[in-house]
Specification:
single chain; alpha+beta; Rossmann fold; OB fold (Dihydrolipoamide Acetyltransferase, E2P); 2 domains; 6-stranded mixed β-sheet; 5-stranded antiparallel β-sheet; 9 helices; 25% helix; 34% strand; elongated
Length: 358
């Protein structure tokens, strides 16, 4: 097995006595698009800053292509960072902004001019050399910040919530631009966001973090379809997370009704967490459902209807469907066994934070 391109080994970091990262281990493959995803304060930006050299870990090592760079300053690392605030120089032209790092490295003028043209073409802003920063839209400023980073030919591009200040349409456009750039440049992207859609859209690998721990790491499909704990299931997309009782292998009881599932190895008559995605619930005639309930809320979302179905135990099931069931209608709830995800209940709050599964 080949060694990882970037390897964070047992990283811990505290600020003012508050532990932000606790014995974090993370390996990144070369030429991958890895997204660190999690709520505010989970440690994702601190992780990025440690990779970039802007923070030094209290413990642990940062290995880059086989070399220990834990104490190496940012300007000596083969990477560049794109920040949410862009950090463009308003008194400089676009060309001067892009060339800033190259001039510090005393590159020849002809080399710099070629690189400026190349970078602007790559971000679809050819002819913008002499424009001012203030004349650009938010999306264009973001592209210039990326252009300034890539002209230095980094082996890794770090992106710290770079699309957070953009409106929804621009943000979606830039997601596709970043995927295109990643494929054309052939470099490693490490991206920080709290936006689940961004992570699912762009990433090869998603690292879900909470309270300084990695909860789960995998492909977007694995993270969405096979969450390893209730936190991941709740954070990635929308979910119904229910208390269940594992009767035996492939049979779980939810709200007094027994549902066939495909999970094994949880024991018998054991309390478990059950995750069911809203789009995986079929609303049928009451007599055809495993459970029955009443539609209590209805919202039209464009591509589907979002409904809440309240069952006799008082739980409100979130349902997404292209078929409308009006408020007040009594319906049956049916779920395919493959769409029921079973997971162990955490034994304590600490175990829940760490994301431990037996």
């Amino acid at each position: 097995m080949s060694q990882p391109f970037i390897d964070l080994q047992h990283i811990s970091k505290s600020f003012d006595g508050t532990l932000v990262l606790d014995d974090l281990c993370l390996s990144v493959k070369e030429n991958s698009f890895v997204t660190l995803l999690g709520p505010s304060g989970c440690g994702k930006t601190t992780t990025l800053r440690i990779i970039g050299g802007f923070e030094t870990p209290d413990a642990g090592r940062v290995i880059f292509d086989g070399e220990d760079i834990t104490r190496l300053p940012p300007n000596k690392r083969q990477l560049n960072t794109v920040f949410q605030k862009y950090a463009l120089f308003p008194h400089m032209s676009i060309a001067d902004n892009i060339a800033f790092g190259l001039r510090i490295r005393r590159k020849p003028k002809s080399y710099i001019d070629d690189k400026i043209r190349y970078a602007l073409r790559l971000v679809n802003l050819e002819g913008f050399e002499h424009r001012t920063v203030d004349s650009l839209s938010g999306g264009q400023q973001q592209r210039i910040a990326i252009a300034r980073a890539i002209v230095n030919e980094p082996r890794v591009l770090l992106l710290d919530e770079p699309l957070g200040a953009l409106d929804l349409k621009l943000r979606q456009d830039m997601q596709y631009e970043l995927i295109r750039l990643k494929n054309e440049l052939g470099i490693t992207f490490i991206y920080v966001t709290h936006d689940q859609e961004e992570a699912l859209t762009m990433s090869d690998t998603i690292v879900v973090m909470n309270q300084g721990y990695i909860q789960q790491m995998g492909t977007p499909e694995q993270i969405y379809n096979e969450p390893e704990n209730a936190f991941v299931a709740d954070f990635i997309g929308e979910s119904n997370i229910l208390d269940g009782l594992m009767i035996r292998d492939e049979l779980v009881e939810i709200a007094g009704a027994r549902f066939a599932c495909v999970d094994k190895g949880f024991g018998t008559n054991r309390p478990v967490d059950v995750v069911i995605r809203p789009e995986d619930i079929d609303l049928v005639k009451p007599e055809e459902g495993t459970l029955t309930g009443v539609v209590t809320h209805l919202i039209f979302k464009g591509v589907h209807y979002e409904m809440e179905v309240t069952t006799p135990d008082g739980f409100e099931w979130l349902v997404h469907s292209t078929d409308l069931s009006p408020v007040g209608e009594r319906v049956g709830i049916r779920v395919d066994p493959f769409d029921i995800q079973i997971m162990n209940k955490p034994a304590s709050e600490d175990e829940e934070a760490v994301g431990v599964n037996e």
